[in-house]
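To illustrate the input format used throughout this study, we show a single complete record. The first block contains the structure-token representation of the backbone; no residue identities are included at this stage. The design step must infer an amino acid for every position from geometry alone.
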């Protein structure tokens, strides 16, 4: 029997079986096209386990590298000697008189008393969803894991932002080109766009640390983000908030991060912008119970106006300025925009640098040679666009209340997951109780561009 004859017999047999099946009432697919149409609803969705996606960012170099320690007690406090004794002279009678001067005759000692700050994230999962997606047969994407990862990344994102800021929650400024009669808010700096998240609530004030919250403390919600055009689309026109109307150049805050007061207290971690301001504070400054910093610039960072300098020039000059007051900084942090400028200025002269940590976390930077040794420069998207921070890293600590894990699952009662009492759902809480301290501010420097 030829192959052709065999194929023909098989086709005839198939047709006969199809006819017989129809006679017995068995559903049969009528055509090839119909076969796919009828089967597609029953096809199993297969997830590529090795190609999981995560579009977002949470951890920056400084937030990862700053030393974190667990601490207990009402507050964190430590002594800080500021300068040398004024009781010195080639004439003993002068030394004797000065050393007995109860007002000016002693070595100055500051004692920062750091305040604790809170930051929270919370995820809830419906009971039915949890039951039906409880294993990989239900779905590969364990929704609970994704939600917990989301709040952990959100609080890490917040810490990495706040470790650079002044403690008032500022994340951007309304650009002068914004039409407040529309829902389209243009953010002043592109680099600040990465601090916003879709569906987040935002509030406004006339300044970072001045003025009550606009709209009687009301808020608007971000429903769309376009990074390339610096545009946030809000759920309502910007000027629809009641009371004081939001205006261009107003400061933007994540809802709940800013104290609603004309002279707001810090509600967020006081980071580099608080410890190393761009200008010496005015009289009456009482930062963390230290002496008035307006009377001694050693209590703030070394300041350099770099408006007329390139990034490389600013780094080298600031290193020298810090050395004048005993600083030996070895790391610099800068926004990726200015980091790119730095590379263009002298890429052939720089050596690559990298650091890696647990869970695959790592960062790449470059080493720049200065008259006081190599400085490792790290690009950090959380750093303000027009700032360069030069740090003596051993002089910094991030204190976590009861835990050095910043952030972490909040489980003071031992439970990572809580049953909600008034809803068929469970919840998980993440966050941190933390504060940041520096024991030698002037050994660190800030360069800024206007």
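Output of the design step:
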């Amino acid at each position: 029997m030829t192959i052709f004859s065999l194929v023909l017999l098989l086709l005839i047999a198939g047709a006969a079986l199809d006819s017989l099946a129809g006679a017995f009432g068995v559903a049969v697919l009528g055509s090839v096209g119909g076969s796919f149409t009828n089967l597609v609803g029953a096809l199993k969705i297969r997830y590529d386990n090795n190609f999981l996606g995560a579009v977002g960012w949470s951890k920056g170099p400084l937030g990862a590298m700053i030393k974190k320690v667990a601490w207990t007690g009402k507050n964190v406090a430590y002594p800080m000697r500021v300068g040398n004794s004024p009781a010195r002279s080639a004439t003993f009678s002068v030394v004797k008189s000065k050393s007995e001067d109860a007002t000016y005759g002693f070595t100055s000692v500051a004692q920062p008393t750091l305040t604790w700050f809170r930051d929270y994230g919370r995820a809830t999962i419906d009971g039915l969803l949890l039951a039906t997606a409880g294993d990989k047969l239900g779905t590969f994407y364990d929704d609970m894991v994704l939600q917990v990862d989301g709040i952990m990344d959100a609080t890490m994102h917040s810490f990495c932002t706040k470790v650079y800021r002044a403690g008032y929650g500022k994340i951007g400024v309304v650009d002068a080109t914004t039409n407040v009669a529309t829902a389209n808010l243009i953010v002043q700096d592109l680099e600040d766009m990465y601090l916003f998240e879709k569906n987040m609530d935002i509030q406004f004030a006339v300044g970072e640390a001045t003025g009550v919250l606009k709209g009687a403390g009301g808020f608007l919600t971000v429903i769309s983000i376009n990074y390339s055009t610096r545009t946030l689309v809000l759920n309502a026109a910007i000027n629809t908030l009641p009371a004081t109307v939001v205006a261009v150049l107003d400061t933007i805050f994540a809802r709940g991060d800013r104290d609603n007061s004309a002279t707001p207290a810090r509600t967020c971690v006081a980071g580099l912008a608080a410890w190393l301001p761009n200008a010496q504070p005015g009289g009456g400054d009482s930062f963390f119970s230290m002496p008035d910093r307006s009377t001694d610039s050693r209590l703030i960072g070394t300041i350099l106006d770099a408006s007329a300098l390139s990034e490389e020039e600013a780094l080298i000059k600031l290193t020298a300025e810090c050395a004048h007051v005993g600083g030996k900084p070895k790391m610099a942090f800068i926004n990726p925009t200015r980091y790119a400028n730095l590379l263009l200025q002298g890429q052939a002269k720089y050596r690559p640098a990298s650091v890696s940590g647990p869970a695959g976390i790592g960062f790449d930077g470059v080493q720049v040679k200065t008259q006081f040794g190599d400085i490792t420069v790290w690009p950090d998207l959380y750093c303000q666009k027009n700032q360069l921070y030069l740090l003596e890293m051993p002089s910094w600590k991030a204190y976590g209340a009861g835990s050095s894990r910043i952030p972490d699952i909040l489980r003071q009662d031992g439970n990572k997951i809580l049953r909600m009492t008034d809803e068929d759902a469970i919840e998980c809480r993440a966050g941190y109780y933390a504060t940041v301290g520096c024991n030698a501010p002037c050994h660190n420097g800030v360069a800024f561009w206007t």
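Structural context for interpreting the output: The chain has three domains: 61-69+114-166+266-448, 76-112, 168-265. The longest strand covers residues 425-438.
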